[in-house]
Specification:
alpha+beta; Hypothetical protein af1432; 3 domains; 6-stranded antiparallel sheet; 11 helices; about 20% strand; rod-shaped; binds fe (ii) ion
């Protein structure tokens, strides 16, 4: 009568935890892949376009008179500034700004990054060079530079309509770097142009990617929530398992003590009636088999076992000379033996924690047809436990060797059971016994296999 329910529950809970863990890992892996794909995507935004990711604004913020002795046609200098703002919830990374030149002018300097200069684009002789305009010692001979003095204001890189600049903020040599992180984080970059009288508005276009972290976004929050849920369930399961194991150990210990005590009592009973040695234990085994066959639950089966093992406890009150008498019993002696049912019922009446335990002792000699004892009950009037033990008791009586006869044959026992269906035995219980025999679940010494 082992209790396997805890193991089944543990297996189910462990399976749920494994599946949940698999879902969590799978979701996070998908989240990592999606974030990488999202970050690899290249976006563009041109002047006057808007989106909710990035904004760019550019304008001339200051103009001053300027003439250069080495360069003709220059009357003014001006600062053109661009402000790039991150409107998204994550970093804007790897951005570059293309600035289109729409008139003849000179690039004098820029700051906070590098400028890739595309010069003479409309000619067949396009020149490209990337300048760090903080450093005037670099040789820019590949470009058309009309003036290059010692002071930074003397640098005059000639630009024509159609030429363009690409601003790179991410430069190891730059004084500042500008990955834009967080909402409304912005960077301002600037360039100084020299020109003749007036300066046209510039067209520009930003190209960018996102540097979204895997540790942000809804998917990441779901991952954290699921992980916490998993840890919570795991902790609850562990605590429950430990408590359950302890409870089961305590229960098993108490049951073992109870069974040992009952075994001791039945050994006294069986000792009084040496011809039926081991009878109580065998009847208990057959009763458990019947209870299982009849679909009883675990607790009912356990109680049935206790009732069966003590079913003849009332024999303690029957004198030894009657129990051990080998000659024919007188009617009076037989009446005395019959009283073991009433004695047993009375003895066990005080046990309230095991359902129907006294019914087993009191009614196991009742007959289904009402011709039994002690009360002559019939059919459903007889407590169920009495009807079950009745079949198990009779089966053991027939299959045990006695001093006056050997154990009866299998064929005889089966016939006897069949002939007494609805007479001595409850039909459903008797049929269960016949099924158990047919299934070969009972081994009797002199029965052939
Ligand atoms: Fe009995």
């Amino acid at each position: 009568m082992k209790n396997n329910s805890t193991h089944k529950i543990i297996i189910i809970l462990n399976s749920i935890l494994v599946v949940l863990l698999f879902i969590i890992v799978l979701n996070f892996s998908i989240h990592v892949v999606r974030t990488r794909e999202f970050n690899n995507r290249i976006h563009t935004l041109v002047k006057n376009e808007t989106n909710n990711e990035v904004s760019v604004s550019g304008s001339m913020t200051g103009i001053w008179p300027k003439q250069d002795a080495k360069v003709s046609g220059v009357t003014n200098g001006g600062t053109y500034e661009f402000t790039i703002t991150d409107l998204a919830n994550y970093d804007v990374a790897n951005w570059t700004l293309r600035v289109d030149i729409s008139q003849d002018c000179y690039l004098n300097q820029a700051w906070n990054g590098q400028v890739e200069v595309h010069q003479d684009v409309k000619s067949n002789n396009e020149k490209v060079n990337t300048l760090d305009l903080h450093n005037f010692d670099i040789d820019y001979d590949s470009l058309n530079i009309e003036s290059k003095g010692e002071g930074k204001n003397d640098l005059m890189i000639h630009l024509c309509e159609g030429d363009y600049l690409i601003y790179h903020p991410l430069n190891d040599n730059a004084t500042h770097e500008y990955p834009l992180g967080g909402v409304n984080n912005s960077a301002t970059i600037g360039m100084i142009f020299y020109f003749n009288f007036s300066f046209s508005e510039l067209d520009y276009e930003i190209t960018y990617q996102f540097g979204k972290s895997i540790f942000q976004g809804t998917e990441y929050i779901i991952f954290i929530v699921l992980s916490l849920l998993w840890i919570l369930i795991f902790s609850v399961v562990m605590v429950w398992y430990i408590v359950r194991r302890k409870t089961e150990r305590d229960l098993a210990e108490r049951e073992a003590m109870l069974e040992e005590t009952m075994g001791l009592i039945t050994s006294f009973v069986d000792a009084k009636d040496s011809y039926t040695n081991g009878h109580s234990n065998r009847v208990a085994q057959y009763t458990v088999m019947l209870a299982e066959k009849l679909g009883m639950n675990e607790r009912e089966i356990r109680y049935t076992f206790y009732a069966a093992i003590l079913h003849d406890v009332g024999k303690c009150y029957v004198p030894d000379e009657i129990l051990k008498k080998t000659s024919r019993l007188t009617d009076e002696e037989f009446d005395t033996i019959k009283k073991h049912t009433v004695y047993g019922g009375e003895m066990l009446k005080s046990i309230k924690t095991i359902n129907h335990i006294s019914d087993g002792a009191k009614y196991h000699h009742e007959r289904y047809d009402g011709k039994g004892y002690p009360e002559g009950l019939k059919e459903q009037e007889i407590p169920y436990i009495g009807r079950i033990i009745c079949v198990a008791d009779a089966f053991d009586a027939m299959t045990s060797s006695r001093c006056y006869r050997a154990a009866l044959s299998k064929e005889y026992v089966i016939n006897e059971l069949k002939n007494n269906i609805g007479k001595q035995f409850d039909p459903s219980v008797c049929q269960a016994m016949l099924d158990i025999i047919a299934e070969g679940k009972i081994t009797i010494d002199n029965w052939e296999a």
